[in-house]
Design a protein that fits this description.
Elements (H helix, E strand, L loop, with lengths): L6 E4 L5 H12 L3 E4 L2 E4 L4 E7 L2 E10 L4 E9 L6 H15 L4 E7 L3 H9 L3 E6 L2 H8 L17 E7 L1
Parallel strand pairs: 6-7
Antiparallel strand pairs: 1-4, 2-3, 4-5, 5-6, 7-9, 8-9
The protein binds coenzyme A.
The site of coenzyme A (COA) has 20 residues, from helix 1, strand 6, helix 2, strand 7 and helix 3.
Length: about 160
């Protein structure tokens, strides 16, 4: 029997309750701190991944200057099954078709999985903001943890870029 295919569809109002819960579990909530600013990623445009009739992943994105977009959140509920890859592939496809020249994403020093994931998909490190997470914790989002589940201190922002 063939495995179910992952389908990627635009984020719709019906998806928001699920997306808000998933963001709370995976990424500390829909309010994301990066670039010294707190944003509600569910006010951004988004994509939802579906597998076997279930929502299994979310990607949100926003304009980021001329011909650039920022990937503002990405999560997969089911890991290692191609959900993240399918979401990024659809973002890249849509962005390319819209004349976008680059996609940027911010992650944090502790998130080794995300750092590997993005680099394997062609993103390159573009900027290090040392101490940026510590600053956000002090100023705009006190609920950011001090230590990640893998034991690493959460301190710095790393921005990656994918030229299209
Ligand atoms: C980062 C994240 C989104 C990746 O999502 P994912 O769905 O697990 O990613 P994929 O399954 O597409 O790829 C992960 C690995 O699984 C492998 N894989 C993909 N499909 C597979 C399949 N059908 N069978 C076996 N392995 C598979 C891929 O080869 C990939 O390995 P690689 O990176 O060495 O190429 C996910 O780890 C996550 O949600 N993390 C928590 C939230 C987070 O940190 N988000 C990023 C914030 S910036």
């Amino acid at each position: 029997m063939r495995p179910d295919r992952i389908a990627v569809r635009p984020l719709e109002p019906d998806d928001v309750a699920w997306a808000s819960d998933a963001l709370a579990v995976e990424l500390g909530g829909r309010l994301q701190a990066r670039r010294s600013e707190l944003i509600d990623v569910l006010e951004d445009q988004g994509l939802v991944a579906w597998l076997a009739g279930r929502r299994v992943g979310l990607l949100t994105h926003r304009p980021d200057g001329p011909a650039r977009i920022e990937l503002s959140a990405l999560l997969a509920v089911d890991r290692g099954r191609g959900v993240g890859t399918a979401l990024v592939a659809e973002l890249v496809r849509g962005a390319g078709a819209a004349g976008i020249r680059a996609i940027r994403v911010t992650t944090t020093n502790d998130n080794l999985t995300a750092l590997a994931f993005y680099q394997r998909r062609g993103f390159r490190l573009a900027e290090l903001r040392a101490g940026a997470v510590d600053a956000s914790r002090r100023t705009i989002k006190p609920t950011i943890g001090e230590v990640a589940a893998n034991g690493l201190p959460i301190r710095d922002e790393l921005e990656l870029a994918l030229p299209l």
